[in-house]
Amino acid sequence: MLIDIDKLPKEGLTVNRDFEYPSAELVEEDAVFLKPVHVELIVKKYFDQVQVAGRIATVLRFNCSRCLTPFEYPVDSRFDLIYLPEEIEEIKEELEEEDVNTLYYTAPHLDLREVVLEQLNLTFPLRPLCAENCPGICPVCGVVGRDGTCSCTVPGADPRFQPLKSIMKDKK
Ligand SMILES: [Zn+2]
Ligand SMILES: [Zn+2]
Q1: For 120-172, how does the pLDDT look when each residue is reduced to its tens digit (9 = 90+)?
Q2: Nearest CA to 43 among 67, 77, 7?
Q3: Which of 14, 41, 42, 138 sits most deeply, having the most CB atoms within 10 A of its CB?
Q4: Hey, is 71 helix, strand or coil?
C-alpha cells in the first residue's frame, strides 16, 4: 500500500485494515502467520516529515528455541515513527545522531506495507520461548520436559540454576 506523501490530507490519513504477508517475509525462521496483521494507524505529514503512529496486531506461530515445540505468539504493538525524506539521511549521518524511531522514505511515496512488516519483525524476541521457564529437551532421554517430565536426573542441566543451587547448599 503506497502512500502518496504529497496527497496526504492535513488531518492525516487513518488506515484501519488487514495486511497479509507470506510467512517467508518474517525474519524469524519457521515462524508462520496464523492471522493477517491488523493495522490501526494514522499517517500525518508535517512539512516534509511523515509521522506513522498506531498499533499492529496479529498472531504468529513460533517454534520454541529451547524445546522446539510450536507455540502461538500474539503481537499487539504500538509505535510512533517519524520518517524523513531520504536526502536528509546524509545530513543526519554527519551529525551522527542515532534514533531508532526516525526512519527515511523515498519521496514521493511511503510503502505502508513495508513499514508494518518492518515494525512487526522488530517486535520478535531474539530467542522465542514457549514459556519463560521452558525446561527444554532432556539431554538424556530427549523428552520435552513440559509435556511429561521425565525421571532422569541431570545434574546442572540448566546453568541458570547453578547460582541458586550453590546458595541453597551454603544454607545447609
Ligand atoms: Zn519450549
Ligand atoms: Zn530424561
Answers
A1: 999 999 999 999 888 888 888 887 765 667 777 656 555 555 555 455 555 44
A2: 7
A3: 41
A4: strand
Q: Distance between CA atoms of 48 and 63, rounded to whole angstroms?
A: 42
- State the Cα–Cα distance between residues 57 and 119, nearest whole angstrom: 11
Ligand 2 mean position, distance from CA 129 (Å)? 20
Q: How many CB atoms lie within 10 A of CB 63?
A: 17
| Ligand minimally distant from the alpha carbon of residue 146 | 1
SS3 call for 34: coil
Q: What is the CA radius of gyration of the chain?
A: 22
Query: How many angstroms does the Cα of residue 120 sit away from the middle of ligand 1?
Result: 22
Q: Which ligand has an atom closest to residue 154 CA?
A: 2
Torsion over CA of 6, 11, 13 and 17, rounded to 10 degrees?
Answer: 180
- C-alpha 89/C-alpha 13 separation (Å) is 25
Distance between CA 27 and CA 122 in Å, rounded?
Answer: 9
Q: What is the DSSP letter of 130?
A: S
DSSP state of 82: E
